[in-house]
Design a protein that fits this description.
InterPro entries: Aminotrans_IV, Aminotransferase-like, BCAT-like_C, BCAT-like_N, Class-IV_PLP-Dep_Aminotrnsfr. This is branched-chain-amino-acid transaminase. The protein is of the alpha+beta class. It has 2 domains: about 5-135, D-amino Acid Aminotransferase, Chain A, domain 1 (2-Layer Sandwich); about 140-300, D-amino Acid Aminotransferase, Chain A, domain 2 (Alpha-Beta Barrel). It has helices at about 40, 60-75, 80-95, 140-145, 170-185, 225-235, 250, 285-295; strands at about 10, 10-15, 20, 25, 45-55, 55-60, 100-110, 125-130, 145-155, 190, 205-210, 215, 240-245, 255-260, 265-270, 275, 305. The strands form 3 sheets. Strands 9, 10, 11, 12, 13, 14, 15 and 16 form an 8-stranded mixed beta sheet that branches. The longest helix has 15 residues, at about 60-75. It is globular, with a radius of gyration of 20 Å. The chain binds pyridoxal-5'-phosphate (PLP). Pyridoxal-5'-phosphate binds next to helix 6 and strand 14.
Length: about 325
């Protein structure tokens, strides 16, 4: 199994990982894009993130389908069919040796050879990489719950401006809110949409549980694959789900709150601003969803094994 060193280049240290770009697999430290790439200059890029847990991809096909929809909406082209794409992602993980990995596929608008301002003239750039699994919540927070702040001073970019179903890096609203939250003592934050309803947080969807029903925002948020998995778990376990407008009162009165992301899974919230949620500990429904979510990581219906001794790259 290849184990490239943790990269140090130009005085910077990179996480141990493997990337694929321009037809080659590279140590993470060597995977670079030009400063002229529209992905950087205009945030003209889409991406998707899937995780590998205990050597298995979780719901990879759903992530590839969502990536394809994002690419089509942005009129970006990736020169790989689904089998080749899957092969590249598996090979990044295999070469990294990571049993628990955060795996990203992205496509930037790229560079126009003449620095033209016409996006049709740019050459789209596909990049994939696998680095160690990262989570929105640390181990203590996953066990005991996060201290979440609802931030009112920054509103989520409206879906009329940027379609949230195109998974994107337009994160200045989310990052600004994070700093406002950190100043107030938050561990993470959730923001509202322009109508004043609850939207989402930096890299996660949110669920409130009230009287046994799960509520989650529908409009103006990314329809996360973890959120979708919660719907599937709820159907199996017999929990009612209401995907629609979630107002501040519903969130503040919730019996339980949890957040969902590929980066961490199902993560309980124990405090909202200065108030404990429920009894201040992860709630029963949250824990039930958590257990099924991780059990499904061993279910072949939802997983794809990485053969760390093989070579998956479709040549
Ligand atoms: N919302 C936003 C803005 C995100 O960036 C993400 C993931 O990165 C999510 C929600 C959760 O989506 P998923 O469950 O597919 O990881």
């Amino acid at each position: 199994m290849t184990q490239p060193d943790v990269g140090r280049i130009d005085g910077l240290t990179y996480p141990h990982g493997v990337a694929y770009m321009a037809g080659r697999f590279l140590p993470m430290s060597e995977a670079r894009i030009s400063v002229l790439d529209w992905g950087l200059l205009h945030s003209d890029v889409t991406y998707d993130t899937v995780h590998v847990w205990d050597g298995k991809f979780f719901r990879l096909d759903l992530h590839i389908e969502r990536f394809r929809r994002s690419l089509a909406k942005l009129r970006l082209t990736v020169p790989h069919d689904d089998d080749a794409l899957r092969g590249i992602l598996i090979e990044c993980v295999r070469r990294s040796g990571h049993r628990n990995a955060y795996v990203e596929m992205l496509c930037t608008r790229g560079i126009s050879p003449t620095f033209s301002r016409d996006p049709r003239e740019a050459l789209n750039q596909f990049v994939a990489f696998a680095v160690p699994f990262g989570s929105v919540a640390n181990a203590r927070q996953v066990k005991e719950g996060l201290h979440l702040y609802l931030i009112d001073s920054v509103r989520r970019i409206p879906p009329e401006s940027v379609d949230p179903q195109i998974k994107n890096y337009h994160w200045l609203d989310l990052v600004t809110a994070q700093f406002h939250g950190f100043d107030a003592g938050a561990e993470t934050v959730v923001i509202k949409d322009m109508d004043g309803n609850i939207a989402e947080g930096p890299g996660f969807n949110i669920f409130a549980v009230k009287n046994g029903t799960l509520y989650t925002p529908e409009r103006g948020v990314l329809h996360g694959i973890t959120r979708r998995t919660v719907f599937d778990i709820a159907a199996q376990e017999g929990f009612a789900v209401n995907a629609g407008a979630v107002d501040e009162t519903l969130l503040r009165d919730a019996d339980e709150i949890f957040i969902t992301s590929t980066a961490g899974g199902i993560m309980p919230v124990s405090r909202l601003n200065d108030t404990p949620v429920g009894n201040g500990r992860p709630g029963e429904i949250t824990q039930a969803v958590f257990r099924v979510y991780w059990a499904w990581h061993n279910d072949p219906a939802y997983t794809l094994d990485v053969d760390y001794d093989g070579d998956h790259h479709a040549r």
